[in-house]
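[job 0412] stage=fold_complex status=start
inputs:
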Amino acid sequence: MSQLTAAATTTTRTAGRPAFGPAVEITRLRKAYGSVVAVDDVSLSVAEGEIFGILGPNGAGKTTTVECAIGLRAPDAGTIRLLGLDPRADRDEVRQITGVQLQESALPGKLRVGEILDMYRSFYRHPADTGELIEALGLAAKHRAFYQSLSGGQRQRLSAALALIGRPKIAVLDEMTTGLDPQARRDTWDLIEGVRNRGVTIVLVTHFMEEAERLCDRVALIESGRVTALDTPARLTAQASGGKQVRFRPSAPFDDRLLLTLPEVARVDRDGADVTVTGTGDLVNAVILTLAAAGVAAHDVQLDSSSLEDAFVRLTGPRPQPEGV
Amino acid sequence: MTVTTAPLPKTPPRAAFGKIVLNEARLAWRQPAGLAAGVGIPVLLTVIFGELPKFQQSQSSLGGLTYFDVYVPVLAMFATAILALWGLPVPLASYREHGILRRLQTTPVPRAWLLAAQVAVQLCLAVAGLLTVILVGVIAFGAPDAKNPAAMVAACAFGTAGLFPVGLSIAALAPTSATASVIGRLTFVPLMFFAGLWLPRALMPAVLRDISACTPVGAAVAALQDSMQGQFPPAAPLLTLAGYALAFSLLAWRFFRWE
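[job 0412] stage=fold_complex status=done
writing structure:
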């Protein structure tokens, strides 16, 4: 774990263009509800134009972090800056430049999509064009539909539209794709990428690893109110996975030590006729060439590369298993 | 910290309030329970009572007035009371329950604007309800003609001002819209009893009439009754209503929970 904690401190990444500061800068944030510490010590910095993921198990403090960041809650300690502005002291300005999608936020069922958009549009100084927005979100046909008649995916897309209608510089999306079917989720991902391509900085709270892996430039893993890892999804995965795995069925018996002497190989496990080799680097070539040199062919070779999901499970440790206690 | 140099338009735009009111009005129209309870029922009762021959006979027990005459102010305040105690708090509690107030808090618009818009819409309904009851009563069924519109406006204004803060307090304290609905109706029924919906105030035993004078709807009915006979209402009911307005405004302001 020590290498992972070290990784959490490498928060800086050179932004693609000269920025006059990070879009979001959270320094030593702390927030408790009574005696329950929701956020213990969170620091992170999001570059302009970045899609930044906040991952973590339920109750880890993700939502509280985000709620403090957008000024919905007052932090107990620490500072927050959104493009240099304090979300509470510069409240009016911050609300003009941020667009927020909250978890568990409904709208009146008997209002039409167009009426809701029109109202939210009037809140902002430089709003987006409603027609373009609902076209991009695939809601144009639903313009006159009542909110109550929308499917879960359509409601999420409307919620996204409301987060974007003020043409925010920073969009904060909390569990945006929860409850969506796979197709709607993929459509939403395309949408988020499209928004980022227009220069909007996006903070994405999610518990879908696939989503973070696909969308996020960097990911912060929050656990028990602290950032326990912060890096690109690829590096996070590589660090946490402990390497790759190759599975194969050997054509002839061989001694495990043959492979264990290779620098790339960490472990050799056998399951019946199958052999699983765990290691790093150019593992497949090293294993197959060594076996070939010993006159052993490897059949049915399969390479398992770890996903962010594996990394997440490793990083956050085993889930409490009721029957295991 | 702000690096703005050019003067920015006032935030949030004032037109936004109009849009919120418009949408609240649409909701009141599309979910017409409030419209039915606050305008439909009292107006319907006014017409039914107006058509009952027994209600149109002068009663010595009522000081020469007819039952209909004493019911018009009761039904007018029925309209105001049901909208203040039930029509107003139920949507407000639901907006809190469903995170609508919270969602609004992330926009440049103050969330209090949604409360104000809801009060404005329910006030319009209440005025429509009580005005229709009085106009139908006076014009169609010969209830006492005011001849003193200033007195009537004062009675109606104090009655409304005394009742709406009670509804705001229900919205402040009820955790969900379902609870708000129950509390609203449970408050409405005894208040309407003391207002004379089942037994006209003039026929109540002295102790009930004294209690009635201390309740907001009872005081409002007494004031409106006086004003409909051309007298400016005495200070007592108006002061009672002003007291309710002040006390419950403070209560609502102090205890309103946004989340």
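[job 0412] summary: The radius of gyration of chain B is 20 Å.
[job 0412] exit 0
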